[in-house]
Amino acid sequence: MTGFLTALGQKLAERWLTLLVLPGALFLCTAAVARALGQAHALDHRRLVGRITDWAQAPAVSGVGGQVVLLAAVLALAAATGLAAQWLGTVVLRTVLAADWRTWPSPLRQWAQAAVTRRHTRWSAAATAYRQQRDADARALALQGRRADAAPRRAFHDAMRAIAAEAPDRPTWSGDRVHAVAVRLDRDHHLDLPTLWPYLWLTLPETTRAEITTAEQALTRAATLGGWALLYAPLAVWWWPAAPLAAALALTVRHRIRAAVDVYAQLLEAAVRLHCADLATHLGSLGTGPEAFTVGDSLTRQLRTGTPLPRGDTA
C-alpha cells in the first residue's frame, strides 16, 4: 500500500510539473522579457542580459532565504498560470465545438447563426456539385458501360467535406464534425446518441474505451494550448514579438484541434456502430425484424427518460 501511494504521488507530481509548472514558468519568463525590453528594445539581447544581471544582484535575492522565497513564488505563479490556461482551454473547446451556441448571449448567438447560414450555403453548393458529378458518372456507366474518371467526383466530395461532413448545424468545422456522428446514427439506425452513449460507454471493451479516452485527452491538450495562446496574446501590448508567437500557437491549435476532433468523431461513431447490438442484448431488446431501424428504435425507447408533465396535463 505504501509503495502504491508513493508511486501515485510521484505520478501526480510529474503531471503537475509537466502540465502546469513548466509551461507556466516559460510564460513567466516571456512576460519578464516583455517587461525588461518593451517595444522600443524588443530584440536588444544586451539590454536583456543587463536587466537579468541587475535582478540577480538585487539584495532581496542575494541570500538563500530570498532565493527560496523567490523559487516558491515562481512555482506558485507558474502553477496558477497553468490552471488559468487550462480554464481558458475549456472555454476554447466549448467555443470550438459550439454544441450550445443557440443559448449563447445575443451578440455571440447572432454571429454563430450568421456563420451557420454562411457555411450551410457553401456546403449546399458543394453538395449540389458533387451530386451532379456523381449522377453524370452514373449515366456514363449506364450508357457507355465504363467507369468515368473518379478524380473529379472525389474532388467535389473533398470540397464538400472540407466545409462539413453533414449539412452544417454548428458555426465551426469541429462542431459539425462531432454533430455529424449524431446525425448519421439517427439517420442510419434511428439511434439517439445523447441518450444511448452513457449506457453504451459502460458496456464497451476496455481497449475501446482506452482509445476514446486517448482521443479525448489529445483534444483537451490541444484546447489547453489554445488557452496558452490567449495568455500570450496580451503580452504583445508590451512586447511585439509576443504577437507572432501567439499567432503561431493559434495556427498550431487550429490544426491540432481539427485533427483530434476528427479522430474522436471517427472512434465515437465506430464504437456505436460496432457495439450497439451488444448493448441491446444486455438490455434484452434486440429486434428480430429485418429492418435495421428496429434496434435503434428499441434502444431509444428503453433509454430515453420521459419528461414529467404539469399536474392535470396528459401525454
TrEMBL record:
Q: Which UniProt keywords apply?
A: Membrane, Transmembrane, Transmembrane helix
Q: List membrane-spanning regions.
A: 60-85
Recorded superkingdom: Bacteria
Protein name per its UniProtKB record: Vegetative cell wall protein gp1
